[in-house]
Amino acid sequence: MFERFRSFLESLTEATSPTVIEAGDPRIAVMALCIQVMEADGETEVSERKKVRGMIKDHYQLDDSTLNALIAAGETAESQAIDFFRFTSDIKRHFSEEQRIDLVGMLWEIVYADGKRSEMEDHVIWRIADLLGVSGRDRIIKRQEVAAKFDVVEETGAQQET
User: Fold this and answer.
1) Which homologous superfamily does the CATH classification assign to the domain defined by 23-153?
2) Which residue range or ranges hold the Co-chaperone DjlA N-terminal domain (predicted)?
3) What is the average pLDDT score of the chain?
4) Nearest to 37 by CA among 89, 108, 95, 129
5) 60: left (phi over 0), alpha (psi -120 to 50) or beta
6) SS3 sequence, 36-55?
7) Which residues make Cβ contacts (< 8 Å) with residue 114, sequence separation at least 6?
8) Structure pTM?
9) Cα(74)–Cα(120) distance, rounded to whole angstroms?
């Protein structure tokens, strides 16, 4: 009986405070990396912001208030970071290899949301993927998959592989 009462109280707590994002939540690291990729080319487009909001909301099945809290936590973490390691090490502890590869795909979706890919965006994703332990092959495959999804024709040549 006590166990049912405790479960009932926990469900009330969860229902009344869904917007709390705890420090150490790996979703903060994901959001911070999304923000860093979005800002990599020096231009943050509305299409990129919409893409990030939509992907994170759908992926984690968040309501708007929890999404806004996660975005705020990610912005705070990103503004305090000096490099990617803080976020990638947290993600490596919590995500499987497949999940890390999928995250790289999500980052490419942010890049292509504005219809163009810059050298800085390439570099940022290369560094993040490397720190996540995602191979160059998997990073490039994800980029090509996302480019095809967005109907972007990629250039051929060595610069494409950066």
Assistant:
1) TerB-like (1.10.3680.10)
2) 27-142
3) 86
4) 108
5) alpha
6) HHHHCCCCCCHHHHHHHHHH
7) 43, 45, 47, 48
8) 0.81
9) 21
